[in-house]
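Each lists chain and fold; for instance:
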Amino acid sequence: MDLDIRKYLNRAREQKDVEAVRLAYQLITDALPDGGGARRPCCAAELLVLCAEEALQLGCMEISVACLKSYFEGNPATNQFLCRAYLCKGQLRSPATSGNADDFQSALLYFQKAIEISKNNPRYHFLVFNTSLRFLQAMRPLLRPGLRGRLAPSLALLVSALEEVAEPDYSWRAELMIHLVECLVDAGRREDACRYSTVTSEFVASHAPHLYPEVLTLMARYQLLGDSSPDMTTHAPSGAVLHKILKLKNRVEGGERESCLLSEEDVVELKEVFSLLAEHAAGPHAVMPGETPTNTSQTSAAIPPAERVVLLLELAVLGLQRKQREVVASCLKELRSAKETTASQHVMLECFQCELNVLRKQEKMSVYSKAGIEARLKEIGKLDRLLRRVAAAAGEADPRAVQAVCATQWSVCLPLLQRNLRKRVRTELQRVAQALEDINSMLLETRCEVHQELALLEEEEGRLEASLGHLERAVLLADGPRRERLLTTVHRLRLRATLYSAPSRPEDRAAMLLQQAKDKAPKDSIDIRSTLVQAGLLLAPDAFQIVLDADCTPESSDGTVPALQLSAKAKHHSRSVQGVKGHLEGLADDNNATERVNVWAVLVKAARGHEVWDVCRAACRFCLLYDDGRWTEKGQSPEQGSVQINASSRDVLLLLAEICFINAEATVQKLQSEGVELNSPAVLPQDRGGPASEDQWGVYRDWIQSLSAYATAGFLRGAELGEELGEWWMVDNAAVYLWNYSRPLLAACEYRTLLPTFQTLVDTLRRTGHYGDQALLMLLCDCVARGLLQPLLGRDGVRTKKGAGRTPDKAGSTTHLGGTLAMEPAALKDLNKALEVCEFALRLSSVAVPGGAVSMVTRKQVLATWVQIKRLLQQPVSQTKEIGVECKGDESVAAMTRVLVAVEMHLCCNRDGVQVEPAVPGLSSLVRAASDCAWSDAAAELQVWSQLASLCHHGDDHNLVLHCTQAALLLEGAASRGVSGSLYGPNAVNEMLSSVAGLRGLSLAHQSSGDLHKFKEALHVLLSSVSFAEKAQSLPLCRAAARHYWNTCLPLTRAPADRQQLQGPLERILSALCHTGPRQTTQGEAKGRVAATTTAKLEELTNDEDDEIGLRAGMYQMLFRIHGDQGDWERALQVLDKGVRELPRTQHRLLLLQQRTLVRARLGQSVGTDMQRFKEEGDHVCSSVWHQVALCSPDTQQQLAGFQSSVASLSEHGAEGRWQKADLLMQFAEWLYGQNQPLQTTQHHLHWAVDLLLQLDPELAQETDDPSKDSGSADTLGPDPPLQAVDRGASILSALQDVRCLDGLIRAHTLLGFMEPRTSPGHQENLLRAYVFVLHTWNVSMATVREVLTEMAKALPVEPPSSAASRKEKSVVRDKGKGKKTKEAQQTPRPPTEEKPQQLFQEEELTLPSTPTEWARYVCPHVVRETFRTSGAHHCISKPSFPKQAQSLFYLDLLVRELTSLSLPHLSLPVLHLAETIAHDLVGRKGLSDLYRLRIVRTCCQLGMEAHSPYQDELLDLSSLREQELIDCRKAIFIARQRRSQNMLPKQSSSAEPRPEVRLHQWRAELSSEGIWLDKAEVCLSIGLYPSARWLLVEGHLLAKEVGQQETEARALLGLAGLACAEGDHGQALELLDRAQDLGGDEEFWYKLTLTRVQATASLGDQEAGAKVDLVIQQGCAVLRSVLGQRPNHAPRLRLWIASLETRRAAECIRLVSHRGPGETISAGEALRLTQACHALRDAARESTQLGQEEQAAQAHLEHATGLRVLARHAGSDDEEKRHLLDSVCRMQEAVSLQEHALLRAWSWAPSQESPGLTLVSMRRLQRLRLSLAELCLATLEQLHAEEEVQAHARRAKSSAQRALEDFTCHTPEPGCLDQAM
């Protein structure tokens, strides 16, 4: 049987087979006697021990216990098995097995028995070693601080036993000795620990030198090194390095400082340690960059590689703990290159690498961005794979390596242990927990925390049993207060798992309800609130509801008075919160105070988590009742006032401090619900109910203040508890809370209000000595200093008289020795205190302060306040030692500080309006100094550059501005990355970047000076300014940047190609304005950092909302124009829709609405809905919009409806209304005429407009009713017109004094005359009426000028007597413009004693001409022009009288053309003079004025009065190009070419077809320079000024071609072709005509093109010229006939042009045949063509006569007569010849008759007075026709005479009988027969 049992035990040991153990135990049980020890067992006793050992190893505790029980019952012998049995008993009773750390004394007893047995027998000495091994394994749970001291006696006994038996494993003995030293220290036996540590060090140094560093580390850690301790620096080669490492670790970890950062001294020493280790590397690469090897005598000996690896690992651990990435990376590099690293060390190396990777991405991970979380998860995955690989190495896994991986994994996972993130590391944490449990790790705290997190994860996912399992394991691993907390958690979780039983205790029931509330979804807010309220009622059934009702709004007796409501609310809240008093006294059992505090805290946190604020506030008040001092006790130590706090009370106080913060936060939420921020005054309602409610308002105001004070006290109480507990982070949290909630007051610069609170915080932080977030402490100090300064300085920092307004007496006043500022002692005390606080903050920012240097941004903030204090105290600010800058000789910090101080000095001087001190460096020097600084903070550097840019921009130094802004913009990335640890958040950085970009853009635009690339760069920079402002969510900055961009880009809005470039930027700007508009700019970050406003802002920054609305409206309009240029009206409509939606109801929005209506009309959409909105704006606006709808709509019916609605919506009340309606009616008539509507309808509207214009003058009705006032009107009209021409207008002319009305009448009658057929009497009548109104305009204007000048002369001082010579000189100067001087002005001196008012004009200057000759000589005087130019009256020629000057000029040109076509060119002179005056004095275009002067000269030449024209001598000057016009032309060409080079000009298609529509209102287009040049060239061609014409045509063609104006270019080419024909270069003319035809034009252009081509073709003289001419004319006529069918209203004009072309074709045909001599014969075909030509001329003459064009008909008759003469010359018979001659005479007589009729019409309007030199064109034409008729008659008579001679000679040759027979047989001719009776 023994053999079987041993077999089973061997199998169990080898295969870890539990079943084999059970089988062995079964055999042993069977072998045992039934009675226990009655008889001897059948098996060996040692088998029981062996079975117990195997069962213990495999976890079968019950088998092991049973075997040992049976073994000891058998009185075992004292041998090794007895010793081994005791070892098993000890292991079974050990904490590692029982799970009870308190029951370990019995286990120690068994181990001691085993030691006594084994050490006494040499055979069993090996069991001493086994016992020590089992002992340490069993007692591992006690080897932690606080518990290991209990093992000191047992360990001492064990070490002594090993020494007695001379155990050869010295390493194991050394390890036990090290444990013993730690146990002695933990037990408080310090002297024994020091003595024994010396013994241990000597033993280790002699027998286990590889453990010597560990011993020294232990001694250094517990400060056990005494005088008798060995010198570690000389003991081993690695001693020096180890000494430095230990010294550094003790300095860093030994004090109270817990910051992970190192001072610069520590960093330098850390690098020196690495240099010492690097000296023993194989190559020079081991030395860190920037370090030099250090060779000392202490390190001359080589460090063993293994020890070097250990030291490098130790140094890497220290570097990771203190976040020194450079040192860690260098250590890892060295470790990788080392060949002596073990597998465990290699695992640790990989762990360090993962932790280093996490440390490198700390900034990204600190903000919990997606990239940061993914990067951290990646490192966690690496560590998890490493852990699995290490754990998989069965039997070879080093526990230290596993423990290192788990510790690293836990530290990396810690930031992800948050809600919604912890589930992503669940598997990794489970593997960590299992791995630590497998190796029985001593990282008990880490294991406990891991199980806690896993329990929380399981609980969140609803797996309560698994969660309880993890919590129970955590309870086994925890001790002290943590164990109590875990037991409480286990209790609550078990309550939660109990579904069908209710606890008896109210605390347990409340805990269950809170767990239920925790499980509910956030959307069930009502259920959650009711559950929380029930929990509160369970804890405080008598008072909780009363306190909870404090947040309920009471019903006021007078609900209509706001002040009474607010007062009732305040009183109700104050009464309700008093319900907490007496709650603690009413509790029967106060022993469970800790539990109730915890339950109340859970309720508070649950309510806070679900944002049930009223329950949260009520629960906080009950929970804070326990903050009554019960948890602290005054100690009896020598330090009076010291506080004694035990561990359990410490946890409660920590919880109470947390509740203080939550309570304060909930109170702030209550204030915010009232519309008030923390410490802000109550918001005054608009209607307080009158003076009677002032007291009620005071109650509410005091209540608000008490709530603010209560919240502030809560934060400060939390800070106080943190100070008592020594938890400096709680004080920091209080500071952060108060800073965050004080942001509105900080933004409003209410530093004085925050002074008491912040002063308390600063004092508390200074007392603790733990500065935590040093930047925040510096900011608090800055706010305290500003609060102390605020009585002396305004909120904007400008010095005020407050605090120094009252002159103190001599005893109480203090004056600086060198200054003049006297202030009260209290103010001076505050200044000194503020200075002390600032200097403390600046010293805190020095590198010598623990925690490292703060950011330069924070330092700059404090420096600004420090400079202000220094200026107020009138102390020098150039010294930097006093502010702690040079405490460590850091020159870079000193240089930065000097720059910051100088910048602040400049800013202060600019703010105060004083000159900068001479000691302060100038801006250029300051810029150089800033460039030389090595800035450590990108945000501070950015602010410095932005402030310098602002200062330079203020000083107009744009070069420095560009330098500063370039440096600032380069910091964008660095400043944005550094905002997490900076005073400024991302918004503040973007604000500074926006300001900097704006200043740079303005400076670039200022320096562009025509440089297009620099100008575009300026626009790009300004656009980036808008983008930065949008990122900053700063509406004021966005407005300012957008306005600067808009003002800068205005030059690009003139051309479509330039506007196209603005589409994208404008859309981005509008989007930015839209995004920043509704939102409010943030004032800080979540950490409480306020974005301090930089002074580097744009100078013209404006917050005016109206300006922003106008700016946005302008941008929307520009986008609309851009889309309109492209023809994309759908997109344009979308833009306008968006603008109308986003803009408020202002005039700007009305304009966008109007444009949207027009676009909808253009697209053919309905506009009725939009038009309803315009009715509210008045009839004028509504009518104007309808009118524009009519002009924009492509649909004829919609256009008609638009015009009709426009006319109908405009009333006729008032002169202005009638004028607008008349103007609208005339435009409607133009449209009707252009749309080929019936002429009667068109004329009806024009007559209606005339009637309205005649009603503009209120005296007009009386004038028309009183015929006596008609006399004298003839004197004002000049020449006497026929009564039938002016019978309707002459009677009322004297009453018309409004020149604007006369202008309208001129337009209306010109248009009426133009529309009437030439054969109609109304044609000439309306034109003559327009002419009469032109004359009357001159008369009225001259009369007004006379009155004005007379009044001006009366207002001038009396002119003193002057000599005749001086008066003569003045007269000469005045009469220069006239060309002659009057004798009266030269010879009539005034008496010397007579004093009269000054005379501003001569009478003859205001006398109008009365004859054409005088009009030809007339030049408008300078004094009259000046009056026209400056006058604003409607009774003379002025800009108000001619509001549409281009329109007026167009109708005057049309009137001149129509009068000329009626053979009345002499009547056009007054019209041309009026047009010239408008162009010169109202339009202000010198070139346009020259055009009309040239036309005057041409008219004078036509009338034969060129010698009388004063402009005749100025022809060369008038026909030339003005210098400014040439400059503008070259500029336009340059810009066009530059755009074309950049592919910015749109391509335009050319068409050879004529445009079918010629609008009458061509005046709508602007008077372009190239158009004026072409008109001038046309005049020059007509009068023979060919060089000038060529210059004008070439320049006009060049400009039109470059800017892409095809119509103007075609006109220029046509003019050049005409010039080429005139010069005889017909080939070039044809080439030019081909180019012009390719460009195309309207029908008039086509008509002129055809005539010019005919002229050029006919002049070539080739054989096919006739056929070509015929083909050209046929094409021209075909084109005109195609248009004729489309435009019936223009049929007369088109028919006339067709007749003219037919006449020309027939004339050319006749001309070709007429060159044949009399003897030459013509072919039948030629004769047929001549006959057809004559027929065509007959038809053309008939057509022209019907159209009323007598002169053209006369020309056709003349050409017809010429053709008949040619036919007669080549006739085949005498009868045919005779017939053609007689027909020719008839045609000539008809031509003379028609020309005489035209001449009589012209003479009817000829002046009655003599006009010397006047020769009408019709008269000259008539003379030529009469001469031609006489010539034809003479030729006919000669031919008849020759025939008679021949007949007479033949008769004489006959006999008398023959003659008698002929006479008898001759018949008498019939009447009408052409044959004569012979």
About this structure: The mean pLDDT is 78. The longest strand covers residues 633-634. The radius of gyration is 57 Å.
